[in-house]
Amino acid sequence: MKKFAGQIEIEYRFSQHLGPRFDAAGVTLDLCTNGHYSFKSEVKWPDKDYTPAVERGARDGLTESGIDPDQGVSIILKDISFHAIDSCERAFYLAAKCAAKSRKDINRSVSQNNRMQATS
Questions:
Q1: Helices (H) and strands (E) in the chain, counts
Q2: Between helices 89-101 and 51-64, what is the axis angle to 10°?
Q3: Which residues, in sequence order, are CB contacts of 33 under 8 Å at separation 6+?
Q4: What is the pTM of this model?
């Protein structure tokens, strides 16, 4: 995985055993700092579109990491891992949330970027 230097790609696979079945999903997110919040999906979903769950999960993950997404984070959903039986809205939400929380250096980079903008 690349170091965060204005842009980072994060791949995260979520799987949880729930009784007789699994919840499973995977996301690849491209996060970068810019002047405003944006979310874009480049994914063609094979079945139901879970893009809103991915966006909610990514925003919640960033927020729980101490990052305000509205302060200049752009999120692009680049790829997904989908299973016809085990993938669901909850799994995609949790995969995106965990992906957004998984890199601690994002927090430092966004904070530094915000400080530079505030002093300019």
A1: 3, 4
A2: 30
A3: 6, 7, 72, 73, 74, 109, 110, 113
A4: 0.80
What ranges in 1-120 are assigned the alpha helix state H?
Answer: 51-64, 89-101, 104-119
As a residue count, the chain comes to 120
pLDDT tens, residue by residue, 51-72: 999 999 999 998 888 888 888 8
Number of separate domains in the chain:
1
Given the DSSP bridges, would you call strands 38-41 and 21-33 parallel, antiparallel or unpaired? Answer: unpaired
Q: Which residues in the chain show pLDDT less than 70? A: 1-5, 103-120
- CATH code, domain with 78: 3.30.230.10
Do residues 117 and 72 make contact, with C-beta atoms less than 8 angstroms apart?
Answer: yes
